[in-house]
Amino acid sequence: MSKGSAKQGQLRIIGGEWRSRKVSFIDAEGLRPTPDRVRETLFNWLAPYIEGAAVLDLFAGSGALSLEALSRGAVSATILDINHQVISNLKSQLQILNCQRATLINQSALLFLQKQATKQFDVVFLDPPFRKDMLQQACQLLADNGWLANKAWVYTESEIMPSQLLMPTNWQLYREKKAGQVYYSLWLSQ
Fold this sequence. Notes:
The protein is an alpha/beta fold. The chain has one domain: Rossmann fold (3-Layer(aba) Sandwich), CATH 3.40.50.150. It contains five helices and nine strands, in the order ββαβαβαβαβαβββ. Strands 5-4-3-6-7-9-8 form a seven-stranded mixed β-sheet, with helices on both faces. Strands 1-2 form a two-stranded antiparallel sheet. Strand 6, helix 5 and strand 7 (148-158) form a beta-alpha-beta unit. The radius of gyration is 15 Å and the shape is globular. It starts with 7 loop residues before the first strand and ends with a strand.
């Protein structure tokens, strides 16, 4: 697909500094932007923890989660996606928002997590492609390689009920809900 032929979608930032601002995202295969209603619930759960947090968004897609976190006062966001067009578009959106608190990385999340952490994160967003067995691998790598700060929050989206996921033993399920066919949950790592 050529750079000019990617179809665009839009999402609205719900709260914080950029409240009600619309940002564009490309219509890439498998990209499922987290709906407004789900983002609102998630950020209500995270409200006491997001300001000043270092955020890691491992399968960024539209960037909705990391942009919302930055708008609500996250100190930094490290944003990964394997799709070059997704990263290029997010770079443009961050420039429009005049945001310099984000680091964009065009790499596989699983490859990124395989190395020992050089930084620890307070909040992690995990919304990998479904039916590719990536979620549990990513969670284990986060735990094993030191990516999580003490008492970090990990948000997951999956097609499987959270109680059926094999998560690291020191993670506690804090909240869970379902929207359509997607289960979303928030975990606290101890």
